[in-house]
Amino acid sequence: MGSALLEKLDALATDGSNLPASVELLNGADIKPEPIRWVWPGWLAAGKFHVLAGAPGTGKTSIALALAATITAGGRWPDGTRAAFGNVMIWSGEDDAADTLAPRLIASGADMSRVFFVGSVREAGESRPFDPSSDLETLTRAAAKIGDVSLLIADPVVSAVAGDSHKNTEVRRGLQPLVDLGARLRCAVLGISHFTKGTAGRDPVERVTGSIAFGALARVVLAAAKLPDDHPDGPGRIFCRSKSNIGPDDGGFRYDLRQSELEAHPGIFTSSVLWGDAMEGSARELLGQAEQSADPAARSELDDALEFLENLLSDGPVPSKIVRADCEGAGHSWATVRRAQKVLGVEATRDGGIGNAGKWTWRLPPKTPKALKENLTCSQKSVSMLEKSEHLRGEIIGDAEVF
To answer: In this structure, what are the phi and psi dihedrals at residue 320, rounded to the nearest 5 degrees?
Structure first.
């Protein structure tokens, strides 16, 4: 029946002009599987669309610029892995390149020769502002001339949507050229957005401002939040993964914003990101740490976990697997238990075995005067992405560091 239908269709056209449009079909046997190519393993994927969202004031743009700087300088990511050198394109509809974006990039150690800001569009001999909702094809051609583009930042990403940003169909239609641009250039596309007000506690992907299509189209959704001053680990900020269709979808890093004066440009002060320790847990748990401080019930959850964990370990070391099972069985989230672990100073050690054969156990620390215990925690482990140590340093004598 298939060939008869084709013969009938062919008979309808004499020169081929009346034939209906055709669809190209790719046979599965002709497809060669290939791995995801990562710009930052697990966090930024080449050729994929990403969204970074958070409440105002959390430093989302500064984070994006810090990531851009790492790529241009071949620096280290927050997890310590090395970035491959690449070029970066930045379109911003909110911040000026000269007085805001460039200073932040310089403070982050960027190679500015690898940074390209999207400017105006020349058309019919005249110049007009770049419109991400209609000029992405033109931008793709310009990017192809640059070559080796690893990251494109779109801030804010909602500007790529010409229609109603709360309608799924219009958002998908508006974002598709941006998605296609990343795929054609094999670069990571990072769109900056906000969280909708009054959505604390909900799935972070659903909190992205506008249609759910923003989070649905993105292969990776990242989130940023500010920790409260009364957080057990101290004030700061959290950068975490809230969704990934192509890799791990949990975990994050502490970070903070540092103000500094540019050495080569006296009088110009700007902010840059100072990365801290890795954090475990889902985005919902991690963001909950930042948003629950004003809730007495949330604070009581930590108090309950503190009491439960201290009682559990009071008779001696307990295997970490049993700790987790017992705590979760008692209704305590693992993120809250980890916070309780830090507050109590619980030590995690590997007992016996070779390599990974040993078993991890948790134990309460020896009784230590509070003043001495606090003094021992004054050294911070945070480092910049260019490997500059940001913690208290001592004098090096031989192989030892003496304070």
So the answer is: -60, -35
- pTM for the full predicted model: 0.70
Only one residue has tokens 């799935």, namely: 203
- Residues 80-85: contacts with CB under 8 Å, at least 24 apart: 81/40, 81/41, 83/39, 83/40, 84/39, 84/150, 85/114, 85/148
Pairing state of beta strands 149-155 and 188-192? Answer: parallel
Residue type, position 227, single letter: L
| Contact between residue 70 and residue 77 where contact means Cβ atoms under 8 Å apart | yes
- Please tell me the distance from the alpha carbon of residue 231 to that of residue 343, in angstroms, as a whole number: 10
End-to-end, the C-alpha distance of the chain in Å comes to 86
Rounded CA gap, 255 and 78, in Å? 9
Give the pLDDT of the chain (403 residues) as one tens digit per residue. 556 655 655 665 555 566 677 888 999 999 999 999 999 999 999 999 999 999 888 999 999 999 999 999 999 999 999 999 999 999 998 899 999 999 999 999 999 999 999 988 888 888 888 888 788 888 988 998 999 999 999 999 998 888 888 889 999 999 999 999 999 999 999 999 999 877 777 888 888 988 889 999 999 999 999 887 777 677 789 999 999 999 999 999 999 999 999 999 999 999 999 999 999 888 888 888 777 654 454 456 777 788 888 888 887 888 888 888 888 777 788 888 888 888 888 988 876 654 445 688 898 888 654 443 333 333 334 444 444 434 333 444 444 444 3
Q: Tell me how far apart the alpha carbons of residues 121 and 135 are, in angstroms, rounded to a whole number.
A: 8
Look at strands 87-92 and 149-155 and give their pairing. parallel
